[in-house]
Amino acid sequence: MSGEESLLAKTGLQFFGRMSASVTHEIKNVLAIINENAGLLEDIVLMAEKGLDISSERLQRLARTVNAQVGRADAVVKMMNHFSHSIDHFVEPVDLTKVAEDVCDLFDRLLQMRGVTLETIAPPVPVVVTASRYYLQNLLWCCLNWATIARSDKRTISLAPEKMDNGVRVRLVGLADLDKDTFGLFPSPQEDALLAALGARLDFSVAGGEIIISFLRES
C-alpha cells in the first residue's frame, strides 16, 4: 500500500468513526427520553393502582412524546444506513444535490454545536458526476470542519451544486471571515489524498467567502 493509499484509508476510517459516534450519540439521546417517559408511565400506573384519577390528556402526551422519539430514532437509523451504503461502490454516478442534502442531515448535530446551520441550494436541473460518494462526503466534512472548528459565531453555510461549462462543482457559501492567511493551512495532505481519489480540484474565493470543489469532467 502506497503512502497516499494509507493516508486515504486512515482518513476514511476516521471519518466513518466520527460520523458513527455522532449518530449513536443521537440515538442515546432518544433512548434517554424514552426511558424517562417509561419512568413517568410507571408512576402513572402506581397512581392508578392506588385509585387516583389519571388524566387521559397526560397519557396522550406521553404517547405522543414516545411516538415522536421513535420516529426520530427511525430517521437517524435510516440516515446511518444510507451513509453506510455509500461505501458499496467507490465509483458511481453521484447526484451532487442528493449528496449535499445527505451531508446536511449527517453533519447537523456536530455543526449545530458550533452554531452552524447547513442548507442545500438545489439547482434547477440534476448535477451528476461519476465519483465516490463516500470520499466526497468525507471531503465536504474536512472542508466544513476546518472552516468552522475555531469559530463560534452563528452562521448558515450553504452547499450549492451547479453545472459549469467544463464540468460540475459544489460551492460552500457563507465563509466570509476566511482570509488568505488561513488558506496556507488547507488543504492538508489528508484533503489532497481525497481530491486525488475523486479527481477533483479545490479552490477558494476570498471575495465570495467560498470553498469550491470542482469536477472538470461531467458524467
Describe it for me?
This protein is 56% helix and 19% strand. It folds into two domains: 3-86; 90-215, Histidine kinase-like ATPase, C-terminal domain (Heat Shock Protein 90), CATH 3.30.565. α1 packs across α7 (189-198). β6 (201-205) and β7 form a beta hairpin. The model has no long low-confidence stretch (mean pLDDT 89). It has helices spanning 3-49, 56-84, 96-106, 108-112, 133-148, 180-183, 189-198; strands spanning 92-95, 116-120, 128-131, 155-164, 167-173, 201-205, 210-215. The strands form two sheets. It has a five-stranded mixed sheet with strand order 2-4-5-7-6. The radius of gyration is 22 Å and the shape is elongated. With 219 residues, the chain is an alpha+beta fold.
The name CATH uses for the topology of the largest domain is Heat Shock Protein 90
What is the highest CATH level, the class of the largest domain? Alpha Beta
> Element order, helices and strands?
HHEHHEEHEEHHEE
Q: Structural class, please?
A: alpha+beta
With strands numbered from the N-terminus, the spatial order across the biggest sheet is 2-4-5-7-6
Helix content: 55-70%
Brief descriptors of the model:
219 residues, Heat Shock Protein 90, 2 domains, 7 strands
Which helices and strands appear, and what pairs or packs with what?
Blueprint (H helix, E strand, L loop, with lengths): L2 H47 L6 H29 L7 E4 H11 L1 H5 L3 E5 L7 E4 L1 H16 L6 E10 L2 E7 L6 H4 L5 H10 L2 E5 L4 E6 L4
Helix pairs in contact: 1-2, 1-7, 5-7
